[in-house]
Amino acid sequence: MAVPNLLDDPLRFDRSTPPAAVVIFGANGDLTRRKLMPALYRLAFERRLAQGFAVVGISRTPLSDADFRIRMRAGVEKYLEDSPFDAALWEDFERGLTYLAGDLEDAALYTALRARLDAVAAERRTAGNVLFYLSTQPSYYARVAEGLGAAGLHRPTAPGSWRRIIVEKPFGHDTASARELNTRLQGVFAERDIYRIDHYLGKETVQNILAFRFGNGIFEPLWNRRYVDHVQITTAESIGVEGRGAYYQEAGALRDMIQNHLLQVTATIAMEPPAVFDANAARDERAKLLRSIRIPTQDEVARHAVAGQYGPADVGGAHVAGFREEPGVNPGSRTETYAAVTLFVENWRWAGVPFYIRTGKRLPKRVTDIAIQFHSAPLSLFDDGEPGRWPNLLVLRIQPEEGISMRFSSKRPGAGMTLRPVSMDFNYGTSFGERSPSAYETLLLDALQGDPTLYTRQDMVEASWAVVQPILDVWANAPLAFPNYAAGSWGPAESDAMLARRGHAWRIP
Amino acid sequence: MPVEAPALLRELSETWRSFGRDESSGLLRACAMTLIVAAAESDDPQDLGSILSSLMRLHPSRTIVLRACPKRDEIDARTSVQCWMPFGRHQQICGEWIEISAGTARLAEVVPLLLGLTVPDLPVVLWLRHTALGFVDSLRPVLPLATRVIVDTSEALDAAPALAEVESLTHGPWRVADLAWGRITRWRKALAGMLAALPAPRSGRLQWAGEKMSMPACYLAAWLRAAFPGLALELSSCDPVLPPARVGRIRVVQLTGPGLEMRLERPAGGSSVTVFTNGLASGLVFPSLDESALLAEELGIAARDRIFESALAAARAV
Lengths: 509, 318
Hints:
The complex is a heterodimer of chains A (509) and B (318).
Chain A: E1 20-25, H1 30-45, E2 53-59, H2 65-79, H3 87-94, E3 97-101, H4 107-124, E4 130-134, H5 141-150, E5 163-167, H6 175-186, E6 194-196, H7 204-214, E7 228-236, H8 245-251, H9 253-270, H10 279-292, H11 298-304, E8 305-308, E9 310-311, E10 313-315, E11 318-320, E12 338-344, E13 354-360, E14 367-374, E15 393-399, E16 403-411, E17 419-427, H12 428-431, H13 439-449, H14 458-477, E18 485-486, H15 493-500
Parallel strand pairs in A: 1-2, 1-4, 2-3, 4-5, 5-6, 7-13, 9-18
Antiparallel strand pairs in A: 7-14, 8-12, 10-11, 12-13, 14-15, 15-16, 16-17
Helix pairs in contact in A: 1-2, 1-13, 5-6, 6-14, 9-10, 9-14, 10-14
Chain B: H1 5-22, E1 27-29, E2 34-40, H2 45-58, E3 62-69, E4 75-84, E5 92-103, H3 107-117, E6 124-128, H4 135-138, E7 148-151, H5 159-168, E8 175-178, H6 179-182, H7 185-195, E9 203-209, H8 215-227, E10 232-239, E11 250-257, E12 260-265, E13 272-277, E14 280-285, H9 291-299, H10 306-315
Helix pairs in contact in B: 1-3, 2-9, 5-8, 8-10
């Protein structure tokens, strides 16, 4: 047995986080208040940040450091999940928060940022390490990166220090713009320093898919076309666009959810086991899987993809407006608020197995889950009148009740052999009393520590766009009879028909 | 009346059923292992209860507390359910609790009870809170069930016999852990972090409080010697007054070599450690650790702890 390196004890030593300044572009926005600042505060609470830590918030709105701190505190107090707010800790944490107002297109902003970073490095001992976070409108991503480059802020100032940049989705709005964005980002930062965030990959339950598949011996042998009939991935929202009408109108469900989050989830479900669990091996397998998805021809789109938009309805005694009546939305909008697609993965493991993916707003409940439906028993021994009615189903629940359940048939008590489906359930909360870190906590810490495993790579982004681009192209020109589903329903009838053509039906999650 | 495992399990089931009737939507039964705690009659029930309650929040279990009572002759047992409400949630999480008291002479009779009370198919952890109570021999039939046996030699006055006790437990398929090892994690982490960027030490000194060497000091010395073969490490007491283990008994670690002058010094009763590295001074804080935090650290480790095993093997030579 090899002698372990006694100075390296990963079982007991937390990975250390180097000192750093985090520069948030778009610091006055919702994401900063709701997600980023609560995540950073929580990391400070857990003592996962280095002592030398600072945040520089950047936005157009003029604000003093004190006003910025007040706003951030309000956001943390309101949006901190599963944790108490510690006022004393906040006082210490907020000393590291400063703010810089400016126009992202003005070179003077970057000059001022350079001076601010120099001051922060001296006062807060951040060692010259800087993590830039782009939380602006997507149209500014490339310009900010180029502004940083022009000011030389992308270059480490001290030996051993680093500069990294996190880019929020969407990474482009189609294949061409994604390529252009990548080219411009890579014109300034090396690919290893570009962290494209897909917060779904930071969710504990999505990471648990890998543990479930590759940490157990009994599931992987069944994880293929021989035993799996089809896979359904559902992300449903019960709410509408909630004040994001203007943004959502430009994006739509396919771009907003499927192109990024749900294709990443599909890749996690269907990928081959990596040889080792490190950043590039896992991402290589995800990328390979994404490249294996058959790209539909324009003729196939009508049979393989369904767009929907919710119309008004009375739900639970309240009137719910249709999408076109939402504030900020064009009354003639052709944007889809629902999208369902059938995908095929063209490799030996999955050939012929449909992957049905759906997402939508104003559906009956908020839920994200993945259901693996297995083939029915080859022979029905028990005449219960409905042979094959309840095939085995393995459901991986991502939210809200994280867990795993398995449906199988069982004999009903009493005379005769009548079968009934029953569910064997694992609930995350049952076995782990620990609080799960939020996706942003996990991902921010990874970026500070230089671990890109849970971030997407350029080839993954481009492969994802390649899958949805033909659908976007067809929908852009097709006559869409919107609205075509009522708020509070499970989506348009065409979506049910898409599955029915293969003898399948959507589950009720 | 004899105490029987099936009756205790029925009692627990009945408790769950009654909870179900009263608060059907608000409770979640949680269990990831069986934790058997071998305690002494003198252990303060409130202290122990508080340690195990906070542990249960991180590692939900069926907890079985076995108390050895030297002067008693009978065996008693009672069951209960402990619930807590995680912050921001609306559902209480509950774990099962069984407390057994037995005369020391009758501990062997408790073994069949323990065998019948473990949760099927989940890990069994045995925490021997005191290794010198005659527990070890009485509970040997339970050891093969255990995936992990945890001891705590922190309070031992002399490392030599304590080390022998730990070693006597290592001959089985279970993994042995010692909370005294967890007490030096912060020392080790600080030293490892600093030494990673500095030349290897050739000589050094380790000093402790108390007349004889404590187990944490013994482990730290063993770890340093195993990490740096050939290190000439001088070991000595610097203060005859023995502080409680939770305060920490290691006082000074000094390491020298070409291009290296390092000294970590902790004052008596203090939690701050002064660090001198090649002429630069800085500070660290090593807060005192209760058993709950140490147990949580141990139970959070799923893999075999090869670093501890190496240090344990090296400790014989200290």
